[in-house]
Each structure stands twice: as C-alpha cells, then as structure tokens.
Design brief:
about 500 residues, alpha+beta, four-stranded mixed β-sheet, 17 helices, about 20% strand
Length: about 500
C-alpha cells in the first residue's frame, strides 16, 4: 500500500510541475506582451492623430510656441475654455509649409508634429518654485521651439515667389541651417477647417504639399556644377582643354548587338540651337553649353559622375533634421549609353533633385567643399527659459578637393558676373554673386511640358554666408526667371 501511495504522489507532483511550467510560460508570455505593448504599441496609439484622447491629454497643457532665430514669435496659443485651445499662426501663410498645422480634427503636420512631444511637455515646478508660489498649482505650459528660420529672408523669398509655382530655399553656408523655405502655392493654417476640402482636392496647385523639401524635379543645367567638379577631379588637363560647340551634339543609337544604327540619330542641342563655338570648361559653364557638357560627361564616364554626385548625397538620401522630405531621394542612375550619359551630365534624362538638395549642393561648394547637414532647429526652451535641447552643427563630409572647389567657385562667379554669363539676373548691387542657371525639360501628362527655371548660388562671393536654390515651375515669364528671384532674395539676405 505504501509503495502505491508513493507512486501516486510522484505522479501528482510531476503533473503539478508540468502545470506550473505551462502557467509560468503563459505568464511570461503575457508579461512580455504587456511590456512590448506599453513600450512600442501604446505610444503610437496615444500619439495617433485619430486618437481623440491625445488632444484631451494634451489640452491639460498650454501648447508651446514657435519663434524665428531672432526671437520673433511665429505662433500664439490661447485657452478658449477648459477643453479647447486655439492655435494662431501670426503671419498667416508665411511659414506654414515649415510649421505645418495643429488641429484637433486633422492632427499635426511638419514642425508641429516633429516637436509635438516638446510643445505638449508639461512643466514641473521645483520645490523652490512651489514655495515661492505658496504651494499653489501653476498653469502647465509646453516648451517653446526656436527655429533657424529668419523672418526677413523668409519674407523676401515669399514675396519674390509671388505668382509662381515652385520653391525657394536659403541655407546658412557655414552651418547648413535653413534660413528660409518657401513653397508656392501655399495655404493658411488659420483657416484650415473651412478650406480643408478645397486644399485636398486642388490637384493642379497642391497647396498643402511642400515642394521645397519633398518634390523631385529634373535639376537641369544646375547639375552641371556637379559634372564640372567631376571633370576637374577625374579628367587630367580638363581646365585647359577646348571643345567645339556647333549647337548640336549627335549620337548614333545602337542595336542589341552594340552595332550603330546610322538611320536613327539622337541629338543633344543648346537652348535655341545656339552654336557657341570653341569653349573651355569655364566658358561652357558660363554660357551653359549643353553640347560641351554632353561631351564632358562622356569623358568623365558614368561611374565617375555617379561617384561625384553621391558625395553630394545623391542616391543615398540627404541627411536632414526637422524637415519633412517625404523620403524624396535625389537620384543619378547608371547610364549605359553615350546619349543617356550626355543627357544625365546636363541634369536631364533620369536625374532628379529636390530644391532643398540643390541648395545643399550650392552650400557645399560655397563652403569650400564641406557639406553641412540641413536643419531647422535652433533650440527648445521650457517655460522657465531653460534650454532643454539644441541642434548640434554636423558636417556631412568633403565633396571634392579644395583646389577643384576653388576653381568651380570661380566658374560660378563668371556665370553671374561675367559678360556672357546666363545668370546676370541674379546680380546684387555692391555684392558679388556666384551661381548656376538651369532650364529643365520635363514631361506633363505624357507630353513635353513648359520648361522649369532653376537657379542655385551663393553670396557674398568673397566670404559666402547664404546659399540659395530657386525653381519656378513651367516658367513663362519673359522678365522674371529663377535667377531674378534668387537675386531679390540675396539682396535682402546680404544686407542683414
């Protein structure tokens, strides 16, 4: 009897152990899931724009405000009642593509979203402050965000772009700070709800879309500065070499076996088929010769051209801080034929770039070849004026040899200040401006569209402070082009 009892007890103990193991495994799995949910899932649910509780929770704190780099207030926030706050954008649509919007119905966008955790971060009083206030509860106020934007330069860009579709970006040459970013057409976040349907259905103008940071365009002849640098870096004696420009460069297409097909000529032409005659590299950039730069691109080769472009962060994605780019990656593909490579060398074919990225190209050249990380944050301060976050200045590396960069700077100066330069409209009285114009062909609805007008550049030439990029979509104006807009912006910026 005793033996049987021990056997029964042993079986019972084993069963209990098995059950305990199963329970422990289930409990561990439950704890793991709860931990995962709390750490990774819950914050996303809380911060989801469709979560009404988010705004109830945030409403306990008076939302912080935005300021430009000189301390000018860009937004205000007032409590309407216990459950409602009202955000006002002081200058209407002037900064809206960078600031975005804050709305209980439509959520947050751009900087309002990027810095939301700080803008809604409640201040906690220290013991000293509590004693000073007689242990009375003080209003909870979010942190304030100071951006790198400059009110005067932003206004100049906004006004210069009036009446056009496109974008303008101004960067600080030494730091990469975004001093101005304008996208036209724009919108007024103060009237968001009443205009929401129209803003989202206007497919021709896309007023909510930030062209400055997110739109990819063929860079056109502004890309020639990259082709020129690649030639200086990779083709010995290129500075003294001359090229014949008869107005048109002809290529013979090839069949699948690599044999040339004489009957199917492919041509690359200058603007209005103008023949510029004999040119060196500097002269070709000055008059923006497609024929010469097509030849230069072929001498450089697809691999070298791509390598130089990738030093400017093409194909890799430009690192940015505080900017919505919609993951727009500027591109320079591998070109397998002479015709495609020649087109790619003048910023056509499949080349694509954002206005922000082309401003960064100008910034890197102006900064003796050192590319800086574009950013919009200056600092974040709490309600007591304590700095809780600052954006460090970050270098993205060297894009080319200093001697070659200096040569390219001289070439770009001649584009604006030279007698034959295509960028004369960018001139500023008393200031030397360097730059490069661009006319970018593109397709619209499967047909050739009206060309875009581009300009990138920097000023003052002797000690560069401002780099600029401007694109005017399908520009038909005979009196105003992107160079003129850039000149108007630099005229204001260089007087500061």
């Amino acid at each position: 009897m005793k033996v049987r009892k021990k056997k029964k007890n042993r079986n019972l103990n084993n069963n209990i152990k098995h059950i305990l193991v199963v329970v422990l495994l289930l409990f561990s799995a439950l704890c793991t899931y709860i931990g995962y949910f709390e750490v990774f899932v819950a914050p996303k649910i809380i911060d989801n724009a469709d979560n009404g509780r988010k705004y109830i929770r945030e409403n306990e704190i008076l939302r912080g405000n935005f300021y430009d780099r000189n301390g000018r207030q860009l937004t205000t926030m007032e409590r309407v009642d216990d459950n409602t706050q009202e955000r006002t954008y002081v200058d209407g649509d002037l900064f809206c593509h960078v600031l975005g919007y804050y709305n209980s119905k439509y959520g947050t966008e751009a900087a309002e979203n990027i810095y939301n955790e700080y803008l809604t971060k409640g201040n906690s009083s220290t013991l000293k402050e509590l004693i000073k206030n007689g242990f009375k509860e003080t209003p909870k106020v979010g942190d304030d965000v100071t951006l790198t934007l400059d009110y005067d330069i932003q206004t100049a860009a906004y006004d210069a772009m009036n009446g056009f579709k496109g974008a303008a970006v101004v960067l600080d040459v030494e730091t990469g700070a975004v001093l101005a970013a304008v996208s036209r057409p724009t919108f007024n976040a103060n009237n968001l709800e009443e205009n929401w349907v129209e803003l989202n259905t206007d497919n021709d103008n896309k007023p909510l879309y930030n062209r400055a940071f997110g739109e990819l365009y063929p860079p056109g002849s502004t890309f020639k500065v990259i082709t020129a640098l690649s030639a200086l870096e990779n083709v010995p004696g290129i500075e003294s070499k001359t090229f014949k420009d008869n107005g048109t460069l002809t290529f013979n297409k090839k069949d699948s076996n690599g044999n040339e097909i004489e009957a199917d000529d492919y041509t690359l032409s200058n603007y209005n088929h103008i023949a510029h005659g004999t040119l060196d590299l500097k002269g070709a950039l000055t008059v923006s010769s497609n024929v010469v730069f097509g030849q230069v691109a072929m001498e450089v080769g697809s691999d070298n051209l791509k390598e130089t472009a990738e030093k400017f962060y093409f194909n890799k994605g430009l690192p940015v801080q505080g900017l919505y780019t919609n993951k727009a990656v500027s591109k320079v593909p591998d070109y397998t034929s002479d015709g495609e490579l020649a087109q790619g060398g003048i910023g056509q074919a499949q080349d694509l770039a954002t206005p922000l990225h082309m401003a960064a190209v100008a910034q890197a050249i102006a900064n003796d070849g050192e590319m800086m990380k574009p950013h919009t944050l200056s600092k974040i301060e709490d309600a007591s004026g304590n700095v809780v976050k600052e954006e460090p200045i970050e270098s993205l590396g060297q894009v080319g040899e200093l001697s070659n960069i200096k040569t390219l700077q001289e070439y770009m100066l001649n584009v604006v200040e030279g007698t034959r330069g295509t960028g004369k409209n960018a001139k500023v009285s008393g200031i030397k401006v360097a730059g490069k114009t661009g006319t970018a062909d593109h397709e619209k609805n499967g047909k050739a569209g009206i060309a875009h007008s581009w300009f990138i550049g920097f000023a003052p030439y002797d000690k560069p402070k401002y780099a600029v990029s401007v694109i005017l979509e399908e520009n038909q104006s005979k009196n105003i082009n992107a160079a003129k807009v850039a000149g108007d912006i630099l005229k204001v910026a260089t007087k500061k």
